[in-house]
Amino acid sequence: MPHHTHLTVRGYHLDVYRHVNNARYLEFLEEARWDYFDHNGLAEFFRNSRYGMAIVHIDIHYRRAALLGDKLDIETAFAQADARQAVINQIIRKTGSPHILAEARVSFMLIDQTTGRAIRFPTELQQAIAAHIPSNPAEPAS
Amino acid sequence: MPHHTHLTVRGYHLDVYRHVNNARYLEFLEEARWDYFDHNGLAEFFRNSRYGMAIVHIDIHYRRAALLGDKLDIETAFAQADARQAVINQIIRKTGSPHILAEARVSFMLIDQTTGRAIRFPTELQQAIAAHIPSNPAEPAS
Amino acid sequence: MPHHTHLTVRGYHLDVYRHVNNARYLEFLEEARWDYFDHNGLAEFFRNSRYGMAIVHIDIHYRRAALLGDKLDIETAFAQADARQAVINQIIRKTGSPHILAEARVSFMLIDQTTGRAIRFPTELQQAIAAHIPSNPAEPAS
Amino acid sequence: MPHHTHLTVRGYHLDVYRHVNNARYLEFLEEARWDYFDHNGLAEFFRNSRYGMAIVHIDIHYRRAALLGDKLDIETAFAQADARQAVINQIIRKTGSPHILAEARVSFMLIDQTTGRAIRFPTELQQAIAAHIPSNPAEPAS
User: Fold this and answer.
1) Which chains have at least 3 CB atom pairs separated by less than 8 Å from chain D?
2) Average of pLDDT values for D15-26?
3) What pLDDT is stored for residue B88 in this prediction?
4) Which of D34, D40, D55, D58 is nearest to D125 (CA)?
5) Residues B101-138: pLDDT tens digits?
6) Is C59 in Cβ contact with D17 (below 8 Å)?
7) I need a labelling partner for C44 at 20 to 30 A (CA). Which of A80, D44, D62, D127 fits?
8) How much is the pLDDT for C57?
9) Which of B23, B27, B55 lies at the smallest CB-CB distance from A62?
């Protein structure tokens, strides 16, 4: 079941074209991932471990402009995970609207913060993530 | 011939993991694109027109962490363009190093700022871009 | 009566020292001001006018560090207003804590967006603001 | 002798009013301070120590708007220092112009990153800073 995060577009999110700047969307997505992790117990896992998430790939399509005052609904769901990498799908819409403003695939690995090196996902984390992957995930269009 | 932009990683570019945050890379890439446009005359074109660039797609791979004090070299080059869309390839390395920290394909359309609608590239812009596409472009690995 | 806005400190808010970066606090304060304006009708006033707010002065004291996962409570209240300038006091605490993390005085003027020039506050705006100034405002310590 | 840092205003620095957002100025100031520290040896001091700088107070006046494409000149100079706190004055102008866009007083303390606590400035740091304080410093107007 995807998780939904809500936020409102403010003046400082906009750029010279008065729409949300492309880099800000990545902060919106990160906000939504932390919010999702707060709700499924993963934030606690990371706080109590020496592990961190290293984003290795983001593929983001910007489909419509988000403007001042728009209320956004960000849908976040795990799409897949193996021992080395997990993928999260995120879709941004205006609240109550079916139209997609932006959609992204975000892939991350696990790093050991004491060594800075990528490591395999611990079994408990892999299982926790697997439990959150919808059986029939909605894929962002490529 | 690709264009090179140089910047240094500062404390405010880093996040909880003490490496450059994924969203900051997009600001680095935007900085490098404006810098490139300043040098090839496109910035002037945009300043004197009612056109703006709307990013429609970014595909970015984060390969190695950038850390406090790292001096970065961002290589920017047009990869392709047609009447509706242009693609820019950007590669971030530490200055003097062959290793890639991040590489991205950035696609944009042209919008008319008075209507907010996507429009076809004017012939002069299409030609100006075509003149800047290397005959044998280095593609980011997928 | 001061208005309260709540947000959570995320990984991308932190910098090399792993506390919230000084510039991010200003985004938190702007977020809280828009949120306040949404609740007291001023956001609507600005959306329906050609006026914008130009910040002319910020005096901010950083008293304690905000860290990953901290839940913040931002208190926002008008402190004074005359025909040319209004002042807003904002105080950031951890939710439920009496300790102040940061406190700021934010002064703004009104600009006419068509001319870019500062203008006097329209009477209706001056009155709307005056109605929101507590009779006995808590001043940030200097 | 004040230190000068140069940067150009880009599309992502602007906000809904198409001038540089108030929070961005603080990133410009931080950029200039790191740049200054790179040139006077202080950056090396911080990299080789367990000390960090904690900003405790910023007093910033925004006097004129900075717009897309503006080339900025940021002047940075130590104003005072004692065993507990140092103050840096920073002034932002358009390059070649006498007019001030923004000016700030930035005060910081030293923290021990292993304990997170404020500490007294080591004598060598206090002396290094004192050597950089102009005998007749230009003060930002209050």
Assistant:
1) A, B, C
2) 96
3) 97
4) D40
5) 999 999 999 999 888 889 999 888 888 898 888 776 55
6) no
7) D62
8) 98
9) B55
Cβ neighbors of D25 (< 8 A, separation 6 or more) are D60, D62, D92, D102, D104
Tokens 């040139």 correspond to D39
Kindly provide the residue ranges of all beta strands, DSSP E only, lying in chain B, ordered along the sequence: 3-8, 51-62, 71-81, 86-94, 100-112, 117-119
Give the integer Cα–Cα distance in Å for B87 and B79: 5
Among candidates C17, C53, C63 on the partner chain, residue whose Cβ is nearest the Cβ of D52: C17
User: Averaged over C102-121, what is the pLDDT?
Assistant: 93
Residues D90, D94, D100, D106, Cα dihedral to 10°? -20
Judge: D16–C56 Cβ closer than 8 Å, yes or no: no
User: Does the beta carbon of D98 lie under 8 angstroms from any beta carbon of chain A?
Assistant: no
- Mean of pLDDT values over D8-29: 96
Chain D residues within an 8 Å CB radius of A14: 14-16
The β-bridge partners of D21 are none
A111 touching B, CB under 8 A?
yes
ipTM of the complex model: 0.93
**Is the pLDDT assigned to residue B139 strictly greater than 90?**
no
Partners of D111 in beta bridges? D52, D118
Distance of alpha carbon B38 from the chain centroid? 13
> Chain B residue with minimal CA distance to D38?
B69
CA D117/CA D119 separation, integer angstroms: 6
Min Cα distance B8 → chain D (Å) is 9
- pLDDT, tens only, C19-39: 999 999 999 999 999 999 999
Which range among B32-36, B49-53, D55-59, D137-141 shows the weakest confidence by mean pLDDT? D137-141
- The phi and psi torsions of D98 (rounded to 5 degrees) equal -80, -15
Q: What is the DSSP string of D15-27?
A: -TTSSB-HHHHHH
Tell me the count of A-D CB pairs closer than 8 A: 29
Q: What average pLDDT score do residues B92-102 get?
A: 97
Q: What's residue B141's pLDDT?
A: 47
- Cα nearest neighbour of B19 on chain C: C16
- In angstroms and rounded to an integer, the radius of gyration of the C-alpha atoms of chain D is 16
> Which residues of C carry out catalysis?
15
Determine contact: D68 vs chain B, CB below 8 A.
yes
The secondary element (H helix, E strand) that includes residue A75 is strand A71-81
Q: Using a CB–CB cutoff of 8 Å, tell me whether D96 touches chain B.
A: no
Which amino acid, residue D122? P
Cβ atoms within 10 Å of A85's Cβ, excluding its own: 15
pTM of the model: 0.94
Question: What is the distance in angstroms between the Cα of D134 and the nearest Cα belonging to chain B?
Answer: 26
Residue ranges for chain A with pLDDT beneath 70: 136-142
Are residues C68 and B16, on separate chains, in Cβ contact within 8 Å?
yes
Cβ pairs bridging A and C (under 8 Å):
28
